[in-house]
Design goal:
By secondary structure, the protein is an all-alpha fold. Helix content is 76%, strand content 1%. It has 14 helices and two strands, in the order αααααααββααααααα.
Amino acid sequence: MKLQVALQKNRGVLGVYGLLLFVILCSVVMSPGNFSVNHLLNIVRQASPLGIIAIGQTLVLLVAGIDLSVGATISLINVLAASMMMGDNGNIGMTIVLTLLVSMLIGLLNGLAITKIRIPPFLVTLAMSLVIQGVYLVYTKGSPKGSIAPAFRVISDGWWGPIPVASVIWVLIWIVFAFLLYKTVWGRKVFATGGNSRTSRLSGIGVNRIVVAIYMLSGLLAGITGLMISAYIGVASNGVGNIYTLNSIAAVVIGGTAFSGGKGGLAGTFAGVLIMIFLQSLMTAMNISEAGKYISQGIIIAVMVGINQRGIRTRS
């Protein structure tokens, strides 16, 4: 009886993992020569930056918000990290601290504008994205310089035994936030705030504090993602984070988190990220053109999101 109740309660999450299994099976059938344990581990390694930023986007959607500034934040952190490190291992510590403080400050400004000035999250974070893009273009004068210290690149190229370091970082961050979200009073307040902010206020929950904290965490995770991507590419590159804004939103919603807030969570997001990466890998292996990739991904994402959102409405 308990098992049946648990299955019914987690039907949406199980459906997302069913989709992930289907995508993996399609990869095996359509590209058997490219499918191996090493291939799987490399896919998970490639998924790590998207996986980290998707955690932040999940938290934001759970409080009925959205963060369109994460891509620009990632790009800003990349150009800052490269210009501060200048290929010197001695600059790593200072760079990590300062870049993460900058990313959290961006999240703080987003949160305060939403809670204090009452500007809708979509407009606040869109405007912040444009401001950040302008800042890093002025900072780099259109030509970013610098390089990432060799010792720092271990987080992208390094392996702990058979496991990529980047994947370990992703999983550890996921575990920390899953614990906060599902096992603490703070996590219950997050769900309550997204489900009904007015009732939450009447219940004594500091809704504004929750929202500001969520956006600061989203900024922090964007900063970590920016550092990880910097370690991948080794140099500064304007606009390197742009693709992560929409990809993170797509992964989160595919994972079953609702735009309306209060429904969903990190369990489905983990699968949603892997679905996105497996789809990209499969289409590359099939030599599908860039135009075809965009069309195929758009259709698949729309269908998956439609299925999951319909399931959320049914369970409500």
